[in-house]
Structures are given as structure tokens and as C-alpha cells.
């Protein structure tokens, strides 16, 4: 009998040792094998060997096998603190944070165990994952009462929890209460990453600079946390400095660091350096290739993105659904319907067509290729419970001139109880500017106030444009005046200037432009187009020419054909056709159809046959299928009595097979 007992004790000790190894390696199959052996040998009796049962439950917990772990845990009469911690940790790490919190409450209610620093670390993380800052604060207080206020594990988890819940002040307070020597790289990384995720990007960079100034040794997590900040702020010099740190501190072994460098260079618009990093990498995974493809799309080189996709296949790297969504985006930019449909077929074969980013990319692809019917076919197969596909189909309808359908879809989205986001409004609001229905615009304005979206500068800016195009400048100006001065960006200023411009209020537009410059906002090419257009419509020739001269001297890089079109139109309306033609001749790049069209339109007004013929000749070459150009030239000939030439132009139209599209009017009646 004694020999049998000794044999069982030896077997129990041996299996406990094996289970500890399985726990450290997270080897679930081996844990299950040991479990079978212990049952066969009769070693799992709670009264006979509670320690073995506890170790087995902990092993399952560390392997993330919740059902087995919980069953064994519930058989323990008096679980050890290690067992409680293992179970709470398992629930937290596997996404069952509420279960972790319930188990913590159960542990406290039992009165048999006191939480230690590891318990608090896991429970605080669970609060952060569940976005429960109030409960997190209560547990924070309890940890202080139990003497863990200076424990680095607890403090780091508290900072992460508060940051995850958007409570940046509380996180900063914990950080400042830590002793200088107690702040590890984890503490600094948590603050950098937390600020970035909460939109306080400049603060994140300040913390990184502070960390470097303190002489704290950065690690891979530091690099991966700060590089997205550099990319977002387009701080290329800081990014290069971090890259140098990677080389000096020998952090090159981690592929995540290399991928973060690729992403930073791409977002800073420097694809040459991104390629240099890419080709220096000893190992490239699917994330590396996808980052490069995304980088080229972001920087307007969709063709190069497709080249990298082919290279990726040659390297036998299988794309994932994120890669596929990126390549579909490249196809949409190039209007490459054939390749897009091939990729759609590949997605179906790989069973990734139901991934939300793939669905969204497909809807966008077909819409931009003017096959909105295919977009609706893809949309009909989505779950209708996610916001992104709704955003894509609404945007697609706007792209294809179906503005009323876009508004109808938005109303249906609300009926389906799908919550709109900022992207929804950015896709939807331009539809109201197209239909120019003031009553509907006001209804939408009320919805934006009620839902809280009006606090977003993007929504406010588009609403200014909507009211301007609906003819209500007063409403547009009221919204503009309600925006704090520090929040008015270049897009907001451009919208209100354009609004006054299209209604012929050139003086007000110029006054707003001057206010903008005085406030320190630098005009861009869209702002200049808006103000020049305003001068043209109001007949403010000298003011318009003065602004154009200002552009030539101070912002030559902004010059584009739209600016020349506005100035040609400005001079043409004033009858200064020779000056307009001379300006076209001195352009630094080839004039497009819009520039020549502005000159031809002015020649019709002032009956200038000679320059009208020059402009028409270029337009026939640039836009051979545009009947309007032929009609305008014929009108010039008719105005000066050259009937035969006018008839000749009309015969040219007939010979080419062109027909003028009949004009039409639309009257909308309400409540019918």
C-alpha cells in the first residue's frame, strides 16, 4: 500500500512538472495528452491531488482553452491565487473581459484570497477592453488601498486602461505620479501610443522627445508606437531620426519595425526611401507588401501599386484580404474594370468576399467604373449591419449622379438602425449640394445638430457649401461665423469664399480672402481658383489680375490650368481678348479645353471672329465630340453675318455625325 502511494505521488510530481512545461510553452495538444493520462491513472481526485488539478486548470487557462479550464477550476474546493489569476488572465486575453471581471468579483466575495499585483494588472486591462473607466477608477482606488500604488505593472496597466477609455488626464496623472526611476520603456510607450490613438498626435511626439531627452533606451515597441505619429504629421525628419535609432540600437531583427518604417515613409510621401528600406529587408511578409501597395495608392501611383502586386505573386507571398482591398482600390483609381472583376472572382474562390473592407472596395470599384448596378449587386449581399458598405454605396451613387438615391439610401440606413459616422456624412452631404433643395438641406442641418455631427469641422464645411449652392448665403455665413477662429482651416475658408463667388459677391469674397491671409491660413490652389472665379463673375478685373500676380510671385507652385481659365474668363468678359490670348500663349504648360473654351465663350460675347477661330481650332482637336464648340463658332459667324461659314460649321457637325443634345428644364413640385 505504501509502495502504491509513493508511486502515485511520484507520478503526480512528474505530471505536475510536465504541465508546468506545457504552461510555459502554451502547448495545448500536450496538455490534453497529460490530462488523459492523469484520468487513466486516477490522479485527478480533488481530495487526492488538488495541486495537480489546479496546475492542469492553469495549463488549460494559459493555452486559452476556456471550457476545459473553467470546468476543472470549478472542481477546485479552494483555488489558489495562482489559479484565480490564471483564469482571470485567460478571460482577459481571449476577449471575454466581462467574464474576467465577474470572476474577480467572485474571488473577492469568497473572502479566501486577496488580489496581488498580477490580479490587478489583468482586471484593470479588462476594464480598459470593456471601456469602463468608472469601474477602472474604483479598482484603481482598491489597488492603492492594498499597497500597489507604486507597482510598475499596475501603474502601466492603469495608464493603458485610461488611455483606452479616452481618459488622457487620468493616464497623465498616473504617469506623473510614477517616480522617474520607475518609468520603464513600457510606461513611455503606453503614453505615446495612447496619445496617438486618442488623436493627440503632437502630444505623442512631445512625449517621445521627452523620453529621448531623459536618456531612456527605446525598444521595438517605442519605434512601432512613434513611427505612425511621424507618418500622420508628415514629420519626415523625425522619422529619419527614428530610422537612425533603429540602426544604432540594432532593432532591425523585428519585422514590425521594418513595416512601420515603410508605412512612415509612404505617409510622408517619400516612396523612394520606402523602396530602399523594402529592398534592404531580409524578410518580407504580407504586411510589408501590402504597406508598399497602399503607399503607392496613397501617393497617386496606382500603376506602380499593381506592379508590386505582381512582384508579390512572383515571390510566392499570398495576399490577404487587406491586400486585396488595396489592389481593388488601385483598380478603381485606374478605372480598370476587367482586372477588378478578375480580383472579385479570386476573392470568391478564396472565400474573403464577405470581409467588410473587400465588400466596400468592390462597391467603390464598380461605382468608379460607372457600373453602379454591379455596386448594388455587391451591396445586396452584405449584412446591412455595418456602416462602411453603406458609406461606399452612398458615395457611389453621388459619383454616378444619383444624388436623390444617395439621400434615400441614407434614410434607409437610419431605418435599419445602422449608425452613421463621419465618413457617411462626408459621402452624403455633397448630394444636397447637387440637388440644391433648400428645405432638404435645412432638414439635414437639424439632423446634424441633433446627432452631434455638426461639431465636426468636415461636416460644417460641407454644410457651408450646401447652403451656398442652395442660394442661402445668410445660412452659410451664420455657420461659418459660428466656427471658432482656430478651427477654421483652408477648406472652410475656401468653401465660404467660393459661395460668395458663385453668387457674384466678388467684393465680399476678396474681403474674406484677405481676412484668411491675415489670420495666418495659407491659401492653396483651390482657394485661388475660388477667389479668381469670384472676381471673374463680379467683373473685378484689376483685383483679379492683382491676385493672379500675387500667385505668380508668392505661390508659383500652386498654378494650374484652372487659374488660367479663370483669368482668361476674367479678361474675356471685360473685352480684353488680346490680353487673354497673350496669357494663353505664355502659359508654362499646354492649355487644356477649359482654357480655350473660356476664350471662345468671350469671343461669342464680343463677336471676335479671328480669335474665335483660333480657340475653336484647338477645341476641335481637344474635344472633337463636343457639339457646343461647333455651335459657339457658328454663332460667332452668324452674329457678324457670315452665314455661309456658319452653315459650313453645321455641315461639319453633320459629317462627323454629331447632334446637339436637346436642352431640358425641371420643375419640382412638393407634396405631389
Keywords:
672 residues; mainly alpha; 74% helix; elongated
* Distance from first to last alpha carbon: 98 Å
Query: How would the global form be characterised?
Result: elongated
The description of the largest β-sheet is: none
Q: Please give the number of β-strands.
A: 0
Kindly report the average pLDDT value: 88
State the share of residues found in helices, binned by percent. over 70%
Number of helical segments with 4 or more residues: 38
Estimate what percentage of residues fall within beta strands: under 5%
Low-confidence stretches: none
Q: Please tell me how large the radius of gyration is.
A: 34 Å
Class inferred from helices and paired strands = mainly alpha
Report on the architecture of this protein:
The mean pLDDT is 88. This protein has helices at 2-25, 28-40, 50-62, 66-75, 81-93, 97-110, 117-129, 133-145, 152-164, 168-177, 185-197, 201-213, 220-233, 236-248, 255-267, 271-280, 286-298, 302-314, 321-334, 337-349, 356-368, 372-380, 387-399, 403-415, 422-435, 438-451, 457-469, 473-481, 490-502, 506-518, 525-538, 541-554, 561-573, 577-585, 593-606, 609-622, 627-639, 643-656. The chain is elongated and about 125 Å long. α28 (473-481) runs antiparallel to α29, α33 packs antiparallel against α34 (577-585) and α37 (627-639) packs antiparallel against α38 (643-656). It has 672 residues and is mainly α. Helices cover 74% and strands 0% of the residues. It is built from 38 helices and no strands.
Amino acid at each position: 500500500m505504501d509502495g502504491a502511494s509513493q508511486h502515485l505521488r511520484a507520478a503526480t510530481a512528474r505530471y505536475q512538472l510536465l504541465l508546468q512545461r506545457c504552461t510555459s510553452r502554451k502547448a495545448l495538444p500536450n496538455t490534453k495528452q497529460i490530462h488523459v493520462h492523469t484520468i487513466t491513472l486516477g490522479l485527478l481526485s480533488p481530495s487526492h491531488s488538488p495541486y495537480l488539478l489546479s496546475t492542469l486548470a492553469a495549463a488549460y487557462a494559459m493555452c486559452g482553452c476556456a471550457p476545459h479550464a473553467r470546468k476543472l477550476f470549478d472542481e477546485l474546493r479552494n483555488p489558489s491565487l495562482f489559479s484565480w489569476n490564471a483564469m482571470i488572465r485567460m478571460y482577459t486575453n481571449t476577449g471575454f473581459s466581462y467574464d474576467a471581471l465577474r470572476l474577480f468579483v467572485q474571488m473577492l466575495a469568497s473572502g479566501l484570497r486577496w488580489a496581488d499585483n498580477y490580479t490587478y494588472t489583468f482586471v484593470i486591462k479588462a476594464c480598459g477592453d470593456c471601456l469602463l473607466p468608472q469601474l477602472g477608477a474604483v479598482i484603481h482606488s482598491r489597488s492603492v488601498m492594498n499597497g500597489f500604488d507604486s507597482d510598475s505593472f499596475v501603474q502601466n496597466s492603469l495608464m493603458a486602461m485610461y488611455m483606452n477609455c479616452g481618459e488622457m488626464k487620468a493616464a497623465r496623472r498616473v504617469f506623473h505620479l510614477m517616480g522617474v526611476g520607475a518609468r520603464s520603456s513600457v510606461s513611455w510607450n503606453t503614453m505615446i501610443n495612447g496619445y496617438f490613438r486618442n488623436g493627440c498626435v503632437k502630444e505623442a511626439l512631445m512625449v517621445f522627445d521627452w523620453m529621448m531627452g531623459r536618456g531612456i533606451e527605446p525598444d521595438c515597441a517605442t519605434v512601432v508606437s512613434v513611427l505612425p505619429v511621424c507618418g500622420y504629421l508628415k514629420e519626415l525628419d523625425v522619422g529619419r531620426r527614428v530610422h537612425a535609432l533603429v540602426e544604432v540600437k540594432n532593432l532591425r531583427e523585428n519585422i514590425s519595425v521594418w513595416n512601420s518604417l515603410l508605412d512612415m515613409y509612404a505617409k510622408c510621401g517619400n516612396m523612394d526611401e520606402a523602396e530602399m528600406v523594402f529592398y534592404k529587408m531580409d524578410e518580407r511578409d504580407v504586411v510589408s507588401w501590402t504597406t508598399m501597395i497602399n503607399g503607392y495608392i496613397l501617393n497617386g501611383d496606382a500603376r506602380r501599386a499593381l506592379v508590386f502586386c505582381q512582384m508579390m505573386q512572383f515571390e510566392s507571398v499570398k495576399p490577404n484580404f487587406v491586400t486585396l482591398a488595396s489592389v481593388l482600390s488601385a483598380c478603381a483609381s485606374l478605372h480598370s474594370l476587367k482586372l477588378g472583376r478578375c480580383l472579385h472572382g479570386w476573392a470568391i474562390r478564396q472565400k474573403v468576399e464577405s470581409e467588410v473592407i473587400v465588400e466596400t472596395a468592390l462597391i467603390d470599384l464598380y461605382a468608379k467604373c460607372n457600373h453602379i448596378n454591379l455596386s448594388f449587386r455587391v451591396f445586396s449581399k452584405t449584412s446591412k449591419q455595418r456602416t462602411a458598405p453603406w458609406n461606399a454605396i452612398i458615395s457611389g451613387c453621388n459619383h454616378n449622379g444619383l444624388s436623390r438615391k444617395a439621400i434615400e439610401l441614407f434614410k434607409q440606413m437610419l431605418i435599419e438602425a445602422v449608425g452613421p459616422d463621419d465618413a457617411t456624412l462626408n459621402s452624403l452631404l455633397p448630394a444636397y449640394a447637387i440637388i440644391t433643395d433648400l428645405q432638404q438641406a435645412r432638414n439635414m442641418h437639424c439632423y446634424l445638430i441633433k446627432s452631434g455631427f455638426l461639431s465636426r469641422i468636415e461636416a460644417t464645411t460641407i454644410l457651408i457649401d450646401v447652403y451656398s449652392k442652395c442660394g442661402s448665403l445668410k445660412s452659410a455665413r451664420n455657420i461659418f461665423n459660428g466656427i471658432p477662429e482656430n478651427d477654421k482651416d483652408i477648406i472652410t475658408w475656401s468653401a465660404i469664399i467660393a459661395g460668395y463667388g458663385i453668387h457674384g459677391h466678388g467684393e465680399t469674397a476678396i474681403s474674406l480672402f484677405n481676412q484668411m491671409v491675415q489670420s495666418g491660413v495659407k491659401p492653396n490652389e483651390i482657394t485661388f481658383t475660388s477667389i479668381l472665379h469670384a472676381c471673374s463673375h463680379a467683373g473685378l478685373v484689376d483685383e483679379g489680375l492683382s491676385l493672379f500676380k500675387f500667385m505668380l510671385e508668392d505661390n508659383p507652385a500652386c498654378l494650374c490650368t484652372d487659374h488660367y481659365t479663370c483669368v482668361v474668363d476674367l479678361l474675356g468678359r471685360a473685352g480684353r481678348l488680346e490680353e487673354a490670348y497673350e496669357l494663353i500663349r505664355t502659359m508654362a504648360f499646354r492649355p487644356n479645353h477649359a482654357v480655350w473654351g473660356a476664350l471662345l465663350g468671350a469671343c461669342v460675347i464680343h463677336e471676335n471672329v479671328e480669335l474665335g477661330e483660333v480657340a475653336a481650332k484647338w477645341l476641335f482637336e481637344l474635344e472633337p465630340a463636343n457639339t457646343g464648340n461647333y455651335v459657339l463658332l457658328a454663332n460667332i459667324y452668324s452674329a457678324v453675318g457670315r452665314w455661309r461659314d456658319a452653315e459650313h460649321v453645321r455641315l461639319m457637325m453633320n459629317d462627323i455625325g454629331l447632334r446637339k443634345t436637346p436642352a431640358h428644364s425641371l420643375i419640382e413640385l412638393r407634396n405631389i
